[in-house]
Amino acid sequence: TKGFLPKTQDPLPYTAPIDLEALGESRKEEAFAQELAYAFQKERIDLYTIFLYFDKEKRKCLWLKIINDSYRSEPILRNYLQKLLSNLTPENVYQIVISVESEGILSHSYVFKFQDLEKYEKKEISSKELEVLSPMLEPIFPPGEFESKLLYIRHKKICLFNLKPSLHTYFGSTKGKLKYDVGFLFGPEGYLFDSIYYELKASYIVKSTNRDVGDKDVNNPSQLLNVRTDSINYWQTNTLHVERGYVQKTFNLDKSWFLRGSMGYFEIAYGGVAMEALYYPVNSLWAIGVEGSTLLKRKYSGLSFQSKVRKWEVDTPVFEHYVGLQYFLDFYFDVPIVKLNFKTSVGQFLAKDKGIRFDMMRYFKSGLRVGFWYTFTSGHDKVNGKTYFDKGFSISMPLDFFMAKSSRTRMFYEMSAWLRDVGAKAYTGKEIYPILHEERLE
Asked: Phi first, then psi: what are they for 74, rounded to 5°?
């Protein structure tokens, strides 16, 4: 499906007015920059930076940085860019470089030459031919401060307040099978100094039926460190919780190399520091990365941490000193023909069990994503006398299913087949590969 409502509120690709007048006395550079920023805004594309510079042959060029918060498909974004630039690029500009940023990192770039844009505007070449002449490239960084002139700059929002519904479900209790918490999630997020992302999220439970849900599987108590099976304790203590409060910085190390560092409260149960490095070339079907984090388990209420974690020895609880260390070597592979994306992670999980996790995601043209995972570890978790391996599913649905305009906002839900400690992994911030894959996705 393309959604329940046609995207009647999306703007039409730019057609007029056409202005190819050269930059100079009658068309000032600053006025052109403002004109371009306004045109991008009308197309629901955020333009953040414009640099004017000269290449090695002393030809006038422009470098633009944009952020796409509206369109889920790269070809749709590209069509808007081609239409806009072919009607507004000054004739004495040799080429325009557009670099697309997402979550603080440059994902990819395009280089549009004026002569190609002119032929496209005159319908001498098609959109597909222009795509061949100006393909998606590795990220192109801005020109040096002393080699260019800044024509336009826009700063990212320091604070954006979010409010959305929240739902937690629990299957299995002493009275009835399905229990739930319903409430809402709220708090600010934004960028400090235009480059450091932060997120502060609190939740408030309006209605809860979880009071008779226990933190121990009576028939099959987990014999591993209780890194997940005690999760219900976090939701039973208070109706108001600080779930997240962390900062994250992402870097472009080189054209295909990316780095992420984050620290703070990552989720309701864990906080700490994390690092991730990823190699992911443009137009590549594969990527490889490493990630690692040192984590402390939060107390069931408040913002402090607990130094010991419970572990059942048969039916006797013992408490061990605990500092969480999870680390993984990640390999990603995409099969666009059948729209399948695979991830394999090898390393250590929260309960200190080592093993491998397989993730498979099926993504659809509509934006819907359905994922499954299966984990093999050395935890040897026993359920009804058999070794249990963590497994589950996830669903990610774009909200513009129900909107008359394009949006990249999503609803996400995931659930394990059985809440156990084996194969458990903590959230440590926004991972790099999903950011880039979504930005480059056709």
From this structure: -60, -40
Helix (H, G, I), strand (E, B) or coil at 206: strand
DSSP assignment, residue 114? H
Helices (H), 355-400: none
CA distance 192 to 172: 43
**Scanning the structure block, which residue is given the tokens 């978790």?**
381
Cα–Cα distance measured from residue 364 to residue 134, given in angstroms and rounded to the nearest whole number: 26
Exposed/middle/buried for 116, CB within 10 Å: 0-12, 13-18, 19+? Answer: buried
Q: Kindly tell me if the per-residue pLDDT of 174 is higher than 60.
A: no
- Per DSSP, helices labelled H in 311-353 are none
DSSP assignment string, 249-304: EEEE-SSSEEEEEEEEE-SSSEEEEEEEEEE--TT-SEEEEEEEEEEEEEPSSSS-
> β-pairing, 354-363 with 369-377?
antiparallel
pLDDT recorded at residue 4? 75
Q: Are 375 and 422 within 8 A, CB to CB?
A: yes
Residue 171 has a pLDDT of 74
> Are 370 and 395 within 8 A, CB to CB?
yes
Cβ(241)–Cβ(265) below 8 Å: no
Q: CA 340, CA 326: separation in Å to the nearest integer?
A: 27
Contact 233, 211 (CB under 8 A): no
Give the pTM.
0.92
The amino acid sitting at 338 is V
Q: Are 72 and 364 in contact (CB under 8 A)?
A: no
Buried residues in 63-77 as b, exposed as e (16+ CB within 10 A)? bbbbbbebbbebebb
Tell me which amino acid residue 73 is.
Answer: S
**How many whole angstroms separate alpha carbon 242 and alpha carbon 246?**
11
Mean pLDDT of 184-207: 94
C-beta separation of 43 from 88 below 8 A: no
Token output for 418 = 């059985």
pLDDT of residue 220: 86
- On whether the CB atoms of residues 426 and 273 are closer than 8 A, the answer is no
CA distance 358 to 349: 13
Give the C-alpha separation, 408 to 44, whole Å.
Answer: 12
Q: What is the mean pLDDT of residues 151-180?
A: 83
Residue 150 has pLDDT above 90, yes or no: yes
Alpha carbons 322 and 270: distance in angstroms, whole number: 12
